[in-house]
Amino acid sequence: MNRKLAAADIIFYMALPFIIWNYGKGFLGDYLAMLLSTVPGFIYTIYRFWKEKQFNIAGLFIISSLLLSTVVDLASGSAENMIWNGIYLGLFFTFIHMITLIIKRPLALYFAVDFVYLQQGHPREQSKKLFYQPGIFKWYQLIQSIFVIRGLFMAGLKTWLLQKYGVDGYGGMILYRQVAGWTFGALIMGLYFYSSVPINNYLKKLHGVKKEEATST
Fold first, then answer.
1. 3-state SS assignment for residue 123
2. Which of 16, 44, 51, 211 is 20 to 30 A (C-alpha) from 61?
3. Quick one: 42 exposed, middle or buried, by C-beta within 10 A (0-12, 13-18, 19+)?
4. What b/e string do you get for 104-128 counting C-beta neighbours within 10 Å, with b at 16 or more?
5. pTM attached to this predicted model
6. Which DSSP helix (H) or strand (E) runs through 137?
7. Range 128-133, long-range pairs (CB < 8 A, 24+ positions)
8. pLDDT digits (tens, 9 = 90+) for 34-60
9. Could you read off the pLDDT of 94-128 as tens digits, one per residue?
């Protein structure tokens, strides 16, 4: 992530929501201020989706999650219900991640396929076949496991903060949630980068086998 993207994430996902909540709840009320605090992140995510043209599994998963979250927020009716519904929705998405892990169709692998296609133009089917090789596939299962752990941790963190501080602690929840999200995001990105090691080793080995077959014929 470059500095401009990092700064934009801080502004739209943490600073603006915190400011809107902190200064708006006094005259808007908790629920409306909480709803409005989600607007900067919503607009920024839509903009990023449009700009990067992520019309793929990763992008569609992100945008559908965002739209579903928005519908749930609007239907909550109160600030406390909005937080609880956000926790339940997070657990629902975690369940989806867990199912794809169990059936060995990890979303982490499909996200990687989309990324390689967008960055390097590699055909998706070829990348998918490569990533399903035994020595490589386990890394995407590991990354998928981190997605599950992240979902459970975030749900637990929100529940603990809500029970400890109530709705008034929503401002702190924004900060803690974002820091935790960045921490897990850095871990996941690190694993994605490291997965290039077994991929390169596999390709070198495959190239060596093909070279030997060519020289023997």
1. coil
2. 16
3. middle
4. eebbbbbbbbbbbeeeeeeeeeebe
5. 0.81
6. helix 134-165
7. 130/199, 130/202, 130/203, 131/199, 133/202
8. 888 888 888 888 887 777 665 566 777
9. 999 999 999 999 999 988 888 787 677 677 788 88
